[in-house]
Specification:
The complex is a heterodimer of chains A (115) and B (108).
Chain A: E1 5-7, E2 10-13, E3 19-24, E4 31-37, E5 43-50, E6 53-56, E7 65-68, E8 75-79, E9 88-95, E10 105-106, E11 110-114
Parallel strand pairs in A: 2-11
Antiparallel strand pairs in A: 1-3, 3-8, 4-5, 4-9, 5-6, 7-8, 9-10, 9-11
Chain B: E1 4-7, E2 10-14, E3 19-25, E4 32-38, E5 45-51, E6 56-59, E7 62-67, E8 72-77, E9 86-92, E10 97-98, E11 102-107
Parallel strand pairs in B: 2-11
Antiparallel strand pairs in B: 1-3, 3-8, 4-5, 4-9, 6-7, 7-8, 9-10, 9-11
The chains are: A mainly beta (115), B mainly beta (108).
C-alpha cells in the first residue's frame, strides 16, 4: 500500500509565476490536509478537504492560494503570483476519516523556492 | 480554535538517557493527541498517539501520557539512541493544530 505521494518534491518558481503542488492520498483515504512549514518552524495548518469539498480553509491566505480535491485525481494546492515569502515546505496528509478518530499520514513534502 | 504549546524547543541528551517533551492544549473537547517525528528533509512520521479515554500508552521505548484535567500530554523516550535525533511535534484535535516542535539531539 503506497503512502501519501506528493509531487514535485522540489519546485523553483520566479516571483509572479504560479505554483501547483499535487498530493495523492493513501489508498482508501478520502480526507486531505495541507500544511506549510517555514525553515526551523512548525507545521501550520492551511486547509482540510474531502472529495470535491473544502471543509476548513481557515489557515489559508485569502488571496493567491486555493486548493481542490476533485472526484478523480490528486488534491492540488495552487499558489498564484508567488512571492519570496511563499518559499517553504508544503506537506499534505491524508486520513480515512476526520482526524477526531483517525490518524493522519504525511507525504514527503514539496519544497517551494521562489527566486 | 485549539492552541498547542510545546516545550522545550530544544533538548540535548546523552545516549541511553531518557527524554521528555511536554505539550499543553486549550480546548477541553480535543480527544486525540498524536506525536510525530520529522527527520531532516522528510515528512512527519506518526510515532505514537493517544485518545482521551486512556491515560498512558507505551510502544517499546516510546510512551505517551495524558492528563485531561490539566490539559497536558507528554512524550517519553527511554534509552535514547542517536537515531532518535529529530524534530518532534505534538498535535491536538479537533482541528489538528501542531506544537512548534522540539529538536532532540542524542549525543553518542
Amino acid at each position: 500500500n503506497a503512502g501519501v505521494m506528493q509531487n514535485p518534491r522540489h519546485l523553483v518558481r520566479r516571483r509572479g509565476q504560479e505554483a501547483r503542488l499535487r498530493c495523492s492520498p493513501m489508498k482508501g483515504h478520502s480526507h486531505v490536509y495541507w500544511y506549510r512549514q517555514l525553515p526551523e518552524e512548525g507545521l501550520k495548518f492551511m486547509v482540510y478537504l474531502q472529495k470535491e469539498n473544502i471543509i476548513d480553509e481557515s489557515g489559508m491566505p485569502k488571496e493567491r492560494f486555493s486548493a481542490e480535491f476533485p472526484k478523480e485525481g490528486p488534491s492540488i494546492l495552487r499558489i498564484q503570483q508567488v512571492v519570496r515569502g511563499d518559499s517553504a515546505a508544503y506537506f499534505c496528509a491524508s486520513s480515512p476519516a476526520h482526524t477526531s478518530s483517525y490518524e493522519q499520514y504525511f507525504g514527503p513534502g514539496t519544497r517551494l523556492t521562489v527566486t | 480554535g485549539e492552541n498547542v504549546e510545546q516545550h522545550p524547543s530544544t533538548l540535548s541528551v546523552q545516549e541511553g538517557d531518557s527524554a521528555v517533551i511536554k505539550c499543553t492544549y486549550s480546548d477541553s473537547a480535543s480527544n486525540y493527541f498524536p506525536w510525530y517525528k520529522q527527520e531532516l528533509g522528510k515528512g512527519p512520521q506518526l510515532i505514537i498517539d493517544i485518545r482521551s479515554n486512556v491515560g498512558e500508552k507505551k510502544d517499546q521505548r516510546i510512551a505517551v501520557t495524558l492528563n485531561k484535567t490539566a490539559k497536558h500530554f507528554s512524550l517519553h523516550i527511554t534509552e535514547t539512541q542517536p537515531e532518535d535525533s529529530a524534530v518532534y511535534f505534538c498535535a491536538a484535535t479537533l482541528d489538528m493544530r501542531f506544537g512548534a516542535g522540539t529538536r532532540l539531539t542524542v549525543k553518542p
